[in-house]
Design brief:
4-stranded antiparallel β-sheet, elongated, Neuraminidase, alpha+beta
């Protein structure tokens, strides 16, 4: 069947072309009618000849274009590879749940054993167009909401930095004015010699203030500005990916009835729905453990048995561990060998990624409550700026420029500069009611492990309690983590378990590991998307447990 193409010598692109004219090697002519019995398109001239020869056939004009099949223009749009625009999607990798063109297979899936032609996967597949249409409507509504949240985050992030910059300059002016006023008061009724002495001291004081501003405050502002730019870039990338996928799914929704029995298009549409659900953090995929391994992370300078309070994997695949008992942050390569470490002045209790090369670590003991930023560069760790807190800090999470920092019983929101924005949640019914926290990939939900009451809580971003999960296999929950696709992982410290939980329906999806698998006092958990594995950090153990899923 022939569809659209570009007309020679013209910028016009016809969505449908006349097959009869095409058969006669005439210049491509836009079609005005479609005959379902012939499964062919006709222009205004050719339809007359068709009508005389095949009078019983029914031809649909453009007023009934909803009865026409998918056009070549739409077909190309829906089947074109996002990465390699000149190639058509014709394969599917079951291992990675990805649609592939020949170039994708060559570049990224040459080692995969489960890459199949789409045509072969759809031979026995049934189609549910109504169900697909309803799913598309829900996804498109959710994606529109996500785009609005992303736009709002961009504005809030820039506003927060501008506000901090203004307050720093205001404080500088206040310091200078205070010094000038003090010197002015001292010059009253003084001799010229003493007055000159006061003026000299004034100059020295102002220069000292400006010097401190240049050395520390300017660097801090530059660091925060760089962080803001990186985060804005990440939000922008996500925003445009969302728009592109939204456009594709919108086109599928508009053409849903035309897809009909085209099983390949139906299959591509369902996979793109999966991709959208992953982007929305609503993947329904349940992990299955394929294997496990243990990796020793103790280093010669450690004075005590390791206690891995927090784990973070940055985009290049390197892993950072917060070893609380040894007051050390450790950097691991992709094979989980320690390649660098950084000593800190107190127990590192939590950690989160700020940018692809920058993490924030909360340090806490009886006298210290602070956030230390650490840069990863060329497999080395470098301490950067820090800010201090007025309360205990057991952990930290980051989403789109907002920092979520918690004490034992309360959750607070901070700006990147260290300004406390608000207290989102508090529960004083126990000693450890806010023990760990994770943010959903879309940022609309917060997951809190409540040690005292053996619960996993789901909060809205504003701190409103949405749901509670309780399970016999979750005794004294500690580590909690939300994967990029939205799966929620939680550790039972006393039950020695790692669970996957559906925090929408509040049910356990899988028990991924138990004491029989080597889990003992799990304290932290993190999904490594680079290696498709779950990393478990434990209390009082020199090894981390890696579950391949």
């Amino acid at each position: 069947m022939a569809f659209s193409s570009s007309v020679k010598g013209s910028d016009e692109v016809k969505d449908y072309i006349c097959n009869a004219c095409e058969d006669q090697n005439n210049e491509e002519t836009s079609a005005d009618f479609y005959c379902k019995q012939c499964d062919r398109f006709y222009c205004g001239n050719c339809i007359d000849h068709h009508g005389k020869a095949l009078a019983k056939h029914t031809a649909f004009g453009r007023v009934d274009i909803d009865k026409w099949p998918v056009s070549k223009k739409d077909l190309d749009f829906l089947q074109t590879c996002d990465e390699h625009r000149n190639n058509k999607l014709d394969k599917f990798c079951k291992e990675h749940r990805q649609l592939c063109c020949p170039q994708c297979v060559s570049d990224q899936h040459s080692q995969c054993s489960k890459v199949f032609p789409i045509s072969g996967l759809t031979s026995t597949q049934s189609t549910d167009l109504q169900g697909l249409s309803m799913k598309l409507e829900t996804i498109l509504r959710d994606m529109k909401s996500l785009q609005k949240n992303q736009e709002a985050s961009m504005q809030t992030l820039q506003g927060s930095y501008t506000e901090h910059e203004g307050s720093v300059i205001q404080q500088l002016c206040l310091n200078i004015n205070t010094t000038v006023d003090a010197c002015s008061d001292s010059t009253v009724s003084m001799s010229d010699e003493n007055e000159q002495y006061i003026k000299d001291n004034l100059c020295k004081s102002v220069n000292s203030i400006l010097g401190k501003f240049d050395c520390s405050t300017v660097k801090e502002l530059i660091d925060i500005k760089d962080e803001v730019k990186n985060i804005q870039g990440s939000i922008t990338d996500s925003f445009y990916k969302c728009i592109r996928l939204n456009n594709e799914l919108s086109r599928y929704h508009d053409l849903i009835q035309k897809i009909g029995d085209n099983k390949e298009l139906y299959f591509i549409a369902t996979v793109k729905c999966e991709q959208a659900l992953t982007m929305l953090g609503k993947s329904g995929h349940v992990f299955t453990v394929q294997g496990k391994s243990e990796h020793n992370v103790k280093i010669p300078s450690d004075s005590d048995t390791c206690c891995i309070a927090a784990i973070c994997v940055i985009p290049n695949g390197q892993v950072l561990l917060a070893d609380s008992s040894n007051k050390t942050v450790k950097l691991l390569d992709q094979q989980y060998w320690v390649v660098s470490h950084c000593s800190v002045n107190s127990e590192p209790r939590g950690m989160c990624e700020i940018t692809p090369s920058n993490v924030a670590v909360v340090l806490n003991d009886d006298n210290t409550h602070e956030v230390q930023f650490i840069t990863v560069s060329q497999s080395q760790l470098f301490p950067g700026r820090k800010f201090w807190l007025q309360h205990r800090c057991e952990g930290i999470a980051h989403d789109q420029g907002d920092l979520f920092i918690w004490s034992d019983t309360a959750l607070f929101k901070y700006s990147l500069s260290g300004k406390q924005v608000c207290r989102l949640y508090q529960d004083i019914s126990g000693d450890y009611t806010v023990w760990k926290c994770a943010v959903s990939p879309t940022g609309d939900k917060l997951y809190i492990s409540n040690w005292d009451h053996k619960k996993l809580l789901t909060l809205a971003r504003d701190g409103t309690l949405l749901a509670i999960f309780i399970d016999p296999e979750l005794a004294y929950p500690l580590g909690v983590h939300a994967t990029p696709a939205g799966q929620v992982l939680v550790c039972g410290y006393w039950s020695n378990t790692v669970l996957q939980v559906d925090c929408v329906e509040m049910k356990k999806l899988a028990t991924l590991a138990t004491e029989k698998d080597g889990v003992l006092a799990p304290w932290s958990v993190f999904f490594n998307s680079t290696t498709s594995s779950i990393i478990v950090g434990q209390y009082g153990s020199n090894s981390i447990l890696v579950l391949r899923v």
